[in-house]
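thread: overnight batch results

M.L. [08:02]
morning all. the overnight job finished for the chain we discussed friday. pasting input first so we're all looking at the same thing
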Amino acid sequence: RPVDQRGGSSPQAHRHPGGVDETLLAGGEIELLDTLCQLLTQGDIKMGNTGGLILSLVFAGAGLFALVRGFIDFRTSRASRDWPSVEGQVVAATVETKVDRDENGTTTRYSPRVVYSYSISGQQFSSDQVVIGARQWHTSQARAAAKLAYQTGQRVTVYYNPNKPTQAVLEAGATRGAWGMLAIGLVFTIAGIVVAILIATS
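M.L. [08:03]
and the structure it wrote out:
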């Protein structure tokens, strides 16, 4: 797990060549999309490029997987409106830092992280899920800090899944995480299919 850090410079947020805002992306999806963008922008699409065709199909498959995951997250977030609630407490509220390294150098990304504890029938639980869906990573530390809506020690209402008490959220019914995953899935699927068609017809 990445190490929590505070302070430091605040790199400017930017967009991928395909126009996808990085704040919609989570984890390894950013690196995968970068690779596909390089195929599109560096002229790596060539006749008989079997590797490129396979890679494009992998992207399309990853996109379909993200679409399914986003749909499941959307349904779960809607269902969370009816989950029971208990009082909990924020035990940590930080901006988490992750440094990605590749042949072009390093990229630092930031994500707000809130850890809270709650008790159900005398049993203690903890979670860092504010809403259902993937966490958002930003290239701007200031933007990530602005998204940190909770403070350490703050009393909060925790909504938990009665069939799975370890699954909980602070914002029941919020679907922004699910919409982000659906957007990622749509971009990956379309981009993978387009590249596969270009390779196959070149």
